[in-house]
Prior knowledge:
Layout: H1 6-15, E1 17-18, H2 26-32, E2 37-40, H3 48-65, E3 69-72, H4 76-86, H5 96-100, H6 114-128, E4 137-140, H7 146-160, H8 162-174, H9 182-190, H10 193-207, H11 219-240, H12 247-266, E5 272-275, H13 278-281, H14 297-304, E6 310-324, E7 333-337, H15 345-352, E8 357-360, H16 365-370, E9 374-378, E10 393-397, H17 398-401, E11 404-411
Keywords: Methyltransferase, Transferase
Pfam family, one: Erythro_esteras
Protein name: Protein-L-isoaspartate O-methyltransferase
Amino acid sequence: MTDFTSKARTGLAKLCLPLQNSQDLDPLLERIGDAKYVLLGEASHGTHEYYTWRAEISRRLIQEKGFSFIAVEGDWPDCFEINRWVKNYPDTAESITDVLTQFDRWPTWMWANWEIAALAEWMRKYNNAVPKSQRVGFYGLDVYSMWDSMKIIVDYLEKEDPEAAAYAKRAINCFEPYGEEESYGIGLSRMKSSCREAVLQLLLEVRQKAAHYNHAPEAGLNAEINALVAANGEKYYRSMSAFGDNSWNVRDRHMVEALNTIMNYHGPEAKVIVWEHNTHIGDARATDMADEGMLNVGQLVRDQHKPEEVVLVGFGSYEGTVIAGRMWDAPMQEMPVPPAIEKSVEEVLHSASQESKLLIFDQQPALREYFRGWMGHRAIGVVYRPERERGNYVPTKLSARYDAFLYLDKTRALHPIHLKPAGQKTPETFPFGM
Protein backbone atom coordinates (compact mmCIF):
# COMPACT_ATOMS: atom_id res chain seq x y z
CA MET A 1 0.00 0.00 0.00
CA THR A 2 1.27 3.45 -0.90
CA ASP A 3 2.55 5.50 2.04
CA PHE A 4 0.85 8.92 2.00
CA THR A 5 2.57 10.37 5.08
CA SER A 6 4.19 13.79 4.81
CA LYS A 7 7.64 12.21 5.25
CA ALA A 8 7.00 9.81 2.38
CA ARG A 9 5.75 12.62 0.17
CA THR A 10 8.83 14.71 0.88
CA GLY A 11 10.98 11.76 -0.12
CA LEU A 12 8.92 11.36 -3.26
CA ALA A 13 9.90 14.81 -4.48
CA LYS A 14 13.58 13.79 -4.41
CA LEU A 15 12.88 10.84 -6.70
CA CYS A 16 11.31 13.00 -9.42
CA LEU A 17 13.23 14.91 -12.07
CA PRO A 18 12.82 18.66 -12.68
CA LEU A 19 10.60 19.81 -15.56
CA GLN A 20 11.11 23.46 -16.38
CA ASN A 21 12.64 23.67 -19.85
CA SER A 22 13.49 21.69 -22.96
CA GLN A 23 16.80 20.49 -21.55
CA ASP A 24 14.91 18.82 -18.71
CA LEU A 25 13.53 16.42 -21.34
CA ASP A 26 16.98 14.90 -21.88
CA PRO A 27 16.31 11.94 -19.53
CA LEU A 28 13.06 11.21 -21.36
CA LEU A 29 14.83 11.28 -24.74
CA GLU A 30 17.43 8.91 -23.28
CA ARG A 31 14.66 6.62 -22.02
CA ILE A 32 13.02 6.64 -25.45
CA GLY A 33 16.29 5.52 -27.01
CA ASP A 34 15.65 3.67 -30.27
CA ALA A 35 11.91 3.18 -29.69
CA LYS A 36 9.71 3.39 -32.78
CA TYR A 37 6.42 4.13 -31.03
CA VAL A 38 6.22 7.07 -28.60
CA LEU A 39 2.69 7.66 -27.32
CA LEU A 40 2.09 11.04 -25.65
CA GLY A 41 -1.07 11.47 -23.58
CA GLU A 42 -3.04 14.32 -22.06
CA ALA A 43 -5.43 14.52 -19.13
CA SER A 44 -7.80 16.84 -21.01
CA HIS A 45 -8.48 17.94 -24.56
CA GLY A 46 -8.22 21.63 -23.67
CA THR A 47 -4.99 22.33 -21.77
CA HIS A 48 -2.26 24.60 -23.17
CA GLU A 49 0.67 22.89 -21.49
CA TYR A 50 -0.26 19.39 -22.65
CA TYR A 51 -0.11 20.58 -26.25
CA THR A 52 3.07 22.62 -25.91
CA TRP A 53 5.06 20.02 -23.99
CA ARG A 54 4.00 17.36 -26.49
CA ALA A 55 5.05 19.73 -29.27
CA GLU A 56 8.48 20.18 -27.73
CA ILE A 57 8.94 16.44 -27.22
CA SER A 58 7.82 15.87 -30.80
CA ARG A 59 10.17 18.54 -32.16
CA ARG A 60 13.13 16.93 -30.43
CA LEU A 61 12.15 13.43 -31.54
CA ILE A 62 11.87 14.61 -35.14
CA GLN A 63 15.15 16.52 -35.14
CA GLU A 64 17.26 14.23 -32.97
CA LYS A 65 15.82 10.78 -33.62
CA GLY A 66 14.34 10.98 -37.10
CA PHE A 67 10.67 10.35 -36.30
CA SER A 68 8.49 10.09 -39.41
CA PHE A 69 5.10 11.50 -38.48
CA ILE A 70 2.67 12.55 -35.75
CA ALA A 71 -0.61 10.60 -35.51
CA VAL A 72 -3.42 12.07 -33.41
CA GLU A 73 -6.83 11.37 -31.94
CA GLY A 74 -8.50 13.20 -34.82
CA ASP A 75 -10.49 12.56 -37.97
CA TRP A 76 -8.52 11.44 -41.00
CA PRO A 77 -10.00 13.89 -43.57
CA ASP A 78 -9.44 16.99 -41.43
CA CYS A 79 -5.96 15.99 -40.30
CA PHE A 80 -4.95 15.06 -43.83
CA GLU A 81 -5.47 18.73 -44.73
CA ILE A 82 -2.95 19.64 -42.03
CA ASN A 83 -0.63 16.97 -43.41
CA ARG A 84 -0.87 18.46 -46.90
CA TRP A 85 -0.14 21.94 -45.55
CA VAL A 86 2.91 21.02 -43.44
CA LYS A 87 4.36 19.18 -46.46
CA ASN A 88 3.64 22.18 -48.70
CA TYR A 89 1.71 20.13 -51.24
CA PRO A 90 0.23 21.89 -54.30
CA ASP A 91 -3.08 23.68 -53.90
CA THR A 92 -2.92 23.93 -50.13
CA ALA A 93 -4.26 26.90 -48.19
CA GLU A 94 -2.12 30.01 -47.86
CA SER A 95 -1.87 29.84 -44.07
CA ILE A 96 -2.37 27.19 -41.42
CA THR A 97 -5.18 29.28 -39.93
CA ASP A 98 -7.04 28.90 -43.22
CA VAL A 99 -6.75 25.14 -42.79
CA LEU A 100 -7.73 25.06 -39.12
CA THR A 101 -10.72 27.37 -39.46
CA GLN A 102 -12.27 24.64 -41.63
CA PHE A 103 -12.57 22.52 -38.48
CA ASP A 104 -16.18 23.46 -37.84
CA ARG A 105 -17.57 20.48 -35.98
CA TRP A 106 -17.79 20.39 -32.20
CA PRO A 107 -15.38 20.22 -30.39
CA THR A 108 -13.55 22.54 -32.76
CA TRP A 109 -10.85 23.47 -30.26
CA MET A 110 -9.22 20.02 -30.08
CA TRP A 111 -7.17 20.60 -33.24
CA ALA A 112 -8.24 24.07 -34.35
CA ASN A 113 -6.11 25.90 -31.82
CA TRP A 114 -3.14 28.24 -31.87
CA GLU A 115 -0.93 25.61 -30.24
CA ILE A 116 -1.42 23.30 -33.22
CA ALA A 117 -0.98 26.26 -35.59
CA ALA A 118 2.43 26.97 -34.06
CA LEU A 119 3.47 23.33 -34.30
CA ALA A 120 2.28 23.09 -37.91
CA GLU A 121 4.22 26.22 -38.85
CA TRP A 122 7.35 24.72 -37.33
CA MET A 123 6.76 21.42 -39.18
CA ARG A 124 6.34 23.21 -42.50
CA LYS A 125 9.57 25.15 -41.96
CA TYR A 126 11.36 21.92 -41.03
CA ASN A 127 9.93 20.05 -44.02
CA ASN A 128 10.95 22.80 -46.46
CA ALA A 129 14.57 22.26 -45.39
CA VAL A 130 14.72 18.48 -45.91
CA PRO A 131 14.29 16.20 -48.96
CA LYS A 132 10.69 15.38 -49.87
CA SER A 133 11.21 11.76 -48.82
CA GLN A 134 12.05 12.90 -45.29
CA ARG A 135 9.15 15.27 -44.75
CA VAL A 136 7.28 14.66 -41.51
CA GLY A 137 3.54 14.00 -41.67
CA PHE A 138 0.48 14.72 -39.55
CA TYR A 139 -2.39 12.19 -39.62
CA GLY A 140 -5.67 11.42 -37.85
CA LEU A 141 -6.35 7.93 -36.49
CA ASP A 142 -9.98 8.04 -35.43
CA VAL A 143 -12.74 5.82 -36.78
CA TYR A 144 -15.23 8.48 -37.64
CA SER A 145 -16.20 11.70 -38.34
CA MET A 146 -17.83 10.55 -35.12
CA TRP A 147 -18.82 13.95 -33.82
CA ASP A 148 -20.31 14.95 -37.17
CA SER A 149 -22.23 11.70 -37.17
CA MET A 150 -23.46 12.13 -33.62
CA LYS A 151 -24.80 15.57 -34.44
CA ILE A 152 -26.65 14.07 -37.40
CA ILE A 153 -28.05 11.37 -35.12
CA VAL A 154 -29.35 13.94 -32.68
CA ASP A 155 -30.78 16.19 -35.42
CA TYR A 156 -32.51 13.21 -37.00
CA LEU A 157 -33.91 11.88 -33.75
CA GLU A 158 -35.18 15.27 -32.64
CA LYS A 159 -37.49 15.13 -35.65
CA GLU A 160 -38.36 11.42 -35.58
CA ASP A 161 -38.06 10.38 -31.94
CA PRO A 162 -37.39 13.22 -29.45
CA GLU A 163 -37.24 10.87 -26.45
CA ALA A 164 -34.51 8.80 -28.08
CA ALA A 165 -32.69 12.02 -29.03
CA ALA A 166 -32.46 12.88 -25.34
CA TYR A 167 -30.86 9.50 -24.66
CA ALA A 168 -28.42 10.05 -27.54
CA LYS A 169 -27.35 13.42 -26.09
CA ARG A 170 -26.93 11.87 -22.67
CA ALA A 171 -24.89 9.03 -24.14
CA ILE A 172 -22.56 11.51 -25.83
CA ASN A 173 -21.92 13.19 -22.48
CA CYS A 174 -21.31 9.78 -20.86
CA PHE A 175 -18.79 8.88 -23.56
CA GLU A 176 -16.24 11.14 -21.89
CA PRO A 177 -13.71 10.28 -20.64
CA TYR A 178 -13.92 6.69 -21.84
CA GLY A 179 -17.51 5.86 -22.45
CA GLU A 180 -20.61 4.35 -20.91
CA GLU A 181 -23.13 3.32 -23.52
CA GLU A 182 -26.05 2.09 -21.44
CA SER A 183 -28.10 5.23 -22.05
CA TYR A 184 -27.48 5.04 -25.76
CA GLY A 185 -28.53 1.41 -25.78
CA ILE A 186 -31.77 2.22 -23.98
CA GLY A 187 -32.44 5.00 -26.47
CA LEU A 188 -31.94 2.69 -29.42
CA SER A 189 -34.14 0.04 -27.85
CA ARG A 190 -37.03 2.51 -27.71
CA MET A 191 -36.73 3.50 -31.34
CA LYS A 192 -38.88 1.99 -34.01
CA SER A 193 -36.97 -0.54 -36.11
CA SER A 194 -37.38 1.58 -39.23
CA CYS A 195 -36.02 4.62 -37.40
CA ARG A 196 -32.98 2.68 -36.17
CA GLU A 197 -32.25 1.40 -39.67
CA ALA A 198 -32.57 4.92 -41.09
CA VAL A 199 -30.05 6.26 -38.57
CA LEU A 200 -27.53 3.55 -39.42
CA GLN A 201 -28.01 4.19 -43.13
CA LEU A 202 -27.47 7.89 -42.53
CA LEU A 203 -24.22 7.14 -40.72
CA LEU A 204 -23.09 4.98 -43.62
CA GLU A 205 -23.61 7.92 -45.97
CA VAL A 206 -21.66 10.22 -43.64
CA ARG A 207 -18.69 7.85 -43.56
CA GLN A 208 -18.56 7.81 -47.33
CA LYS A 209 -17.97 11.57 -47.66
CA ALA A 210 -14.21 11.46 -46.95
CA ALA A 211 -12.19 13.40 -49.50
CA HIS A 212 -9.99 11.68 -52.06
CA TYR A 213 -7.08 13.35 -53.77
CA ASN A 214 -6.69 11.67 -57.16
CA HIS A 215 -3.28 12.11 -58.73
CA ALA A 216 -2.13 13.90 -55.58
CA PRO A 217 0.74 13.05 -53.20
CA GLU A 218 -0.15 10.22 -50.82
CA ALA A 219 -3.34 9.51 -52.77
CA GLY A 220 -2.93 5.77 -52.22
CA LEU A 221 -2.58 6.13 -48.45
CA ASN A 222 -5.48 8.57 -48.36
CA ALA A 223 -7.74 6.15 -50.23
CA GLU A 224 -6.67 3.18 -48.11
CA ILE A 225 -7.32 4.89 -44.78
CA ASN A 226 -10.64 6.28 -45.96
CA ALA A 227 -11.68 2.73 -46.93
CA LEU A 228 -10.54 1.49 -43.53
CA VAL A 229 -12.54 4.19 -41.76
CA ALA A 230 -15.62 3.18 -43.75
CA ALA A 231 -15.21 -0.52 -42.94
CA ASN A 232 -14.45 -0.08 -39.25
CA GLY A 233 -16.97 2.72 -38.89
CA GLU A 234 -19.69 0.26 -39.80
CA LYS A 235 -18.48 -2.04 -37.02
CA TYR A 236 -18.33 0.87 -34.60
CA TYR A 237 -21.87 2.09 -35.13
CA ARG A 238 -23.21 -1.45 -35.25
CA SER A 239 -21.56 -2.14 -31.88
CA MET A 240 -23.13 1.01 -30.43
CA SER A 241 -26.58 -0.23 -31.41
CA ALA A 242 -26.12 -3.78 -30.09
CA PHE A 243 -26.56 -4.75 -26.44
CA GLY A 244 -23.40 -5.96 -24.71
CA ASP A 245 -20.97 -4.91 -27.43
CA ASN A 246 -18.17 -2.52 -26.59
CA SER A 247 -17.77 0.21 -29.19
CA TRP A 248 -14.79 1.62 -27.27
CA ASN A 249 -12.79 -1.49 -28.18
CA VAL A 250 -13.83 -1.24 -31.82
CA ARG A 251 -12.68 2.37 -31.91
CA ASP A 252 -9.27 1.74 -30.31
CA ARG A 253 -8.64 -1.35 -32.42
CA HIS A 254 -9.37 0.79 -35.47
CA MET A 255 -6.90 3.46 -34.37
CA VAL A 256 -4.18 0.83 -34.03
CA GLU A 257 -5.07 -0.68 -37.41
CA ALA A 258 -4.90 2.78 -38.98
CA LEU A 259 -1.58 3.40 -37.22
CA ASN A 260 -0.17 0.12 -38.56
CA THR A 261 -1.35 0.98 -42.08
CA ILE A 262 0.42 4.35 -41.98
CA MET A 263 3.56 2.77 -40.53
CA ASN A 264 3.62 0.18 -43.31
CA TYR A 265 3.21 2.95 -45.87
CA HIS A 266 6.28 4.74 -44.50
CA GLY A 267 8.45 1.61 -44.50
CA PRO A 268 10.40 -0.52 -42.01
CA GLU A 269 12.44 2.37 -40.62
CA ALA A 270 9.38 4.49 -39.76
CA LYS A 271 8.91 5.95 -36.29
CA VAL A 272 5.69 7.49 -34.98
CA ILE A 273 4.65 9.96 -32.28
CA VAL A 274 1.03 9.45 -31.17
CA TRP A 275 -0.99 12.20 -29.49
CA GLU A 276 -4.12 10.97 -27.70
CA HIS A 277 -5.90 11.25 -24.38
CA ASN A 278 -4.39 9.35 -21.45
CA THR A 279 -7.38 7.01 -21.55
CA HIS A 280 -6.21 5.84 -24.97
CA ILE A 281 -2.44 5.75 -24.63
CA GLY A 282 -2.04 4.59 -21.03
CA ASP A 283 -2.20 0.78 -20.78
CA ALA A 284 -5.83 -0.08 -19.96
CA ARG A 285 -4.74 -3.13 -17.95
CA ALA A 286 -3.44 -0.76 -15.26
CA THR A 287 -6.87 0.91 -14.84
CA ASP A 288 -10.39 -0.14 -13.95
CA MET A 289 -11.16 -0.19 -17.67
CA ALA A 290 -9.88 -3.76 -17.69
CA ASP A 291 -12.68 -4.78 -15.29
CA GLU A 292 -15.17 -3.78 -17.97
CA GLY A 293 -13.37 -5.74 -20.68
CA MET A 294 -12.05 -2.54 -22.26
CA LEU A 295 -8.71 -2.29 -24.00
CA ASN A 296 -6.95 0.64 -25.60
CA VAL A 297 -4.29 1.84 -28.01
CA GLY A 298 -1.45 1.75 -25.48
CA GLN A 299 -2.22 -1.83 -24.49
CA LEU A 300 -2.48 -3.01 -28.10
CA VAL A 301 0.71 -1.28 -29.23
CA ARG A 302 2.59 -2.79 -26.29
CA ASP A 303 1.24 -6.24 -27.16
CA GLN A 304 2.20 -5.97 -30.83
CA HIS A 305 5.81 -4.84 -30.38
CA LYS A 306 8.92 -5.48 -28.32
CA PRO A 307 9.12 -3.62 -24.99
CA GLU A 308 12.06 -1.52 -26.14
CA GLU A 309 10.11 -0.34 -29.19
CA VAL A 310 7.27 1.33 -27.25
CA VAL A 311 7.24 4.18 -24.74
CA LEU A 312 4.00 5.41 -23.15
CA VAL A 313 4.06 8.90 -21.62
CA GLY A 314 1.19 10.19 -19.49
CA PHE A 315 0.36 13.74 -18.43
CA GLY A 316 -1.44 15.29 -15.47
CA SER A 317 -1.81 18.51 -13.49
CA TYR A 318 -3.00 19.69 -10.09
CA GLU A 319 -5.14 22.76 -10.91
CA GLY A 320 -5.68 25.53 -13.40
CA THR A 321 -8.09 26.20 -16.27
CA VAL A 322 -9.28 24.24 -19.30
CA ILE A 323 -11.35 24.69 -22.48
CA ALA A 324 -14.40 22.40 -22.54
CA GLY A 325 -18.18 22.39 -22.87
CA ARG A 326 -20.68 21.84 -20.09
CA MET A 327 -22.66 19.46 -22.27
CA TRP A 328 -22.41 18.06 -25.76
CA ASP A 329 -22.51 20.76 -28.45
CA ALA A 330 -22.51 23.51 -25.80
CA PRO A 331 -20.41 26.66 -26.38
CA MET A 332 -16.76 26.12 -25.55
CA GLN A 333 -15.65 28.03 -22.51
CA GLU A 334 -12.73 28.43 -20.19
CA MET A 335 -13.47 26.58 -16.97
CA PRO A 336 -11.63 26.25 -13.67
CA VAL A 337 -9.89 22.98 -12.90
CA PRO A 338 -10.12 22.71 -9.11
CA PRO A 339 -7.32 21.33 -6.95
CA ALA A 340 -7.05 17.57 -7.32
CA ILE A 341 -8.83 15.39 -4.78
CA GLU A 342 -7.00 13.96 -1.79
CA LYS A 343 -4.71 10.96 -2.41
CA SER A 344 -5.03 11.23 -6.16
CA VAL A 345 -1.89 11.06 -8.30
CA GLU A 346 -2.04 14.78 -8.86
CA GLU A 347 -2.62 15.73 -5.21
CA VAL A 348 0.20 13.47 -4.00
CA LEU A 349 2.69 14.99 -6.45
CA HIS A 350 1.54 18.51 -5.59
CA SER A 351 1.92 17.96 -1.88
CA ALA A 352 5.39 16.48 -2.43
CA SER A 353 6.46 19.83 -3.92
CA GLN A 354 4.60 22.50 -5.84
CA GLU A 355 6.75 22.15 -8.95
CA SER A 356 6.36 20.42 -12.27
CA LYS A 357 8.08 17.04 -12.42
CA LEU A 358 9.23 14.31 -14.78
CA LEU A 359 8.80 10.74 -13.60
CA ILE A 360 10.62 7.89 -15.38
CA PHE A 361 9.62 4.71 -13.63
CA ASP A 362 12.15 2.12 -14.76
CA GLN A 363 15.04 4.45 -13.94
CA GLN A 364 13.87 4.82 -10.32
CA PRO A 365 12.75 1.54 -8.69
CA ALA A 366 11.57 3.40 -5.58
CA LEU A 367 9.42 5.68 -7.73
CA ARG A 368 7.97 2.71 -9.59
CA GLU A 369 7.16 1.05 -6.28
CA TYR A 370 5.50 4.17 -4.87
CA PHE A 371 3.06 4.34 -7.80
CA ARG A 372 2.44 0.63 -8.30
CA GLY A 373 -0.77 0.67 -6.21
CA TRP A 374 -4.22 1.99 -7.06
CA MET A 375 -4.64 5.77 -7.06
CA GLY A 376 -7.16 8.12 -8.64
CA HIS A 377 -5.87 9.82 -11.81
CA ARG A 378 -7.84 12.74 -13.27
CA ALA A 379 -9.31 12.48 -16.78
CA ILE A 380 -11.18 15.48 -18.25
CA GLY A 381 -13.05 15.09 -21.52
CA VAL A 382 -14.50 17.59 -23.96
CA VAL A 383 -17.59 17.64 -21.72
CA TYR A 384 -16.65 18.85 -18.26
CA ARG A 385 -18.42 20.08 -15.16
CA PRO A 386 -15.99 21.17 -12.46
CA GLU A 387 -18.66 20.82 -9.77
CA ARG A 388 -18.72 17.07 -10.51
CA GLU A 389 -14.96 16.79 -10.13
CA ARG A 390 -14.92 13.58 -8.09
CA GLY A 391 -16.36 11.64 -11.00
CA ASN A 392 -13.37 12.47 -13.22
CA TYR A 393 -10.83 10.13 -11.64
CA VAL A 394 -9.80 6.81 -13.18
CA PRO A 395 -8.41 4.21 -10.71
CA THR A 396 -4.86 3.70 -11.95
CA LYS A 397 -1.61 1.89 -11.26
CA LEU A 398 0.48 4.74 -12.59
CA SER A 399 3.87 3.06 -13.00
CA ALA A 400 2.28 0.17 -14.91
CA ARG A 401 0.05 2.39 -17.01
CA TYR A 402 2.93 4.55 -18.30
CA ASP A 403 6.67 4.32 -18.77
CA ALA A 404 7.03 8.01 -17.94
CA PHE A 405 4.79 10.78 -16.61
CA LEU A 406 4.88 14.56 -16.96
CA TYR A 407 3.32 16.29 -13.96
CA LEU A 408 2.53 19.98 -14.48
CA ASP A 409 1.55 21.64 -11.22
CA LYS A 410 -0.57 24.46 -12.62
CA THR A 411 -1.93 24.58 -16.16
CA ARG A 412 -4.05 26.92 -18.25
CA ALA A 413 -6.59 26.65 -21.02
CA LEU A 414 -5.39 26.34 -24.60
CA HIS A 415 -6.17 28.98 -27.24
CA PRO A 416 -8.92 27.98 -29.71
CA ILE A 417 -8.38 29.30 -33.22
CA HIS A 418 -12.02 30.40 -33.34
CA LEU A 419 -11.39 32.74 -30.40
CA LYS A 420 -8.56 34.76 -31.96
CA PRO A 421 -7.08 37.18 -29.42
CA ALA A 422 -7.60 40.83 -30.36
CA GLY A 423 -4.55 42.45 -31.89
CA GLN A 424 -2.61 39.20 -32.26
CA LYS A 425 -1.95 37.06 -35.29
CA THR A 426 -0.59 34.06 -33.43
CA PRO A 427 -0.15 33.90 -29.65
CA GLU A 428 3.23 32.76 -28.39
CA THR A 429 2.17 29.16 -27.95
CA PHE A 430 5.18 27.11 -29.06
CA PRO A 431 7.27 26.26 -25.98
CA PHE A 432 10.58 27.79 -25.05
CA GLY A 433 10.53 30.39 -27.80
CA MET A 434 10.86 27.88 -30.64
